[in-house]
């Protein structure tokens, strides 16, 4: 009888531990998505400073500001929803704005030689690196979580607790 109680106690402890590890993994995945959103917001906040510093050279400025405003709204809603697909869309939009700015900068040597512009571009590059790191972290966390719920014994217990596979982000880094 004591052996049966002991085995039952070990199983309960294992299930509680397993459940807690999966909940922890989900919280980490959510935090990683939020970090990507935070870095995208930072990037979107730096872009107006860059545009302001090269304003005299920009004939297409109005279109870029409209795209930037749209991207910032998309980032805000993506961060609030904590949804990977929304974050992907926001990151794509920011990438397009940055592409437009880069074209303008490359066509104007005066802009390229500006220290302020150079500093802002370095900050944007640093933020892009942080986004890539956060995406890599999200991919790793999602993969670890998915392995836990798709291998024995996780595949037996995860469905009992309602755990389903997590998808990372769709767009490439």
UniProtKB/TrEMBL annotation:
SUPFAM superfamilies: LemA-like. It is a single-pass membrane protein. Belongs to the LemA family. It comes from the Bacteria. Keywords: Membrane, Transmembrane, Transmembrane helix. It is found in: Membrane. It comes from Candidatus Shapirobacteria bacterium CG_4_10_14_3_um_filter_35_13. The chain crosses the membrane at residues 6-22. The keyword Transmembrane helix applies. This is LemA family protein. InterPro entries: LemA-like_dom_sf, MamQ_LemA. GO terms for cellular component: membrane.
């Amino acid at each position: 009888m004591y052996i049966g109680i002991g085995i039952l106690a070990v199983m309960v402890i294992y299930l509680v531990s397993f459940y807690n590890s999966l909940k922890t993994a989900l919280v980490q995945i959510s935090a990683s998505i939020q970090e990507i959103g935070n870095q995208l917001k930072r990037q979107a906040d730096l872009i107006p400073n860059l545009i302001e510093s090269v304003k005299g050279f920009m004939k297409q400025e109005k279109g870029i500001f409209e795209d930037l405003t749209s991207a910032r709204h998309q980032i805000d809603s993506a961060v609030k929803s904590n949804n990977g697909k929304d974050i992907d869309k926001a990151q794509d939009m920011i990438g397009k704005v940055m592409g437009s700015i880069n074209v303008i900068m490359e066509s104007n040597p005066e802009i390229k030689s500006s220290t302020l512009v150079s500093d802002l571009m370095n900050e944007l590059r640093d933020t892009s690196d942080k986004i890539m790191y956060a995406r890599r972290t999200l991919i790793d966390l999602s993969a670890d979580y998915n392995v836990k719920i798709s291998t024995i014994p996780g595949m037996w217990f995860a469905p009992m607790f309602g755990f389903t596979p997590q998808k990372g982000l769709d767009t490439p880094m």
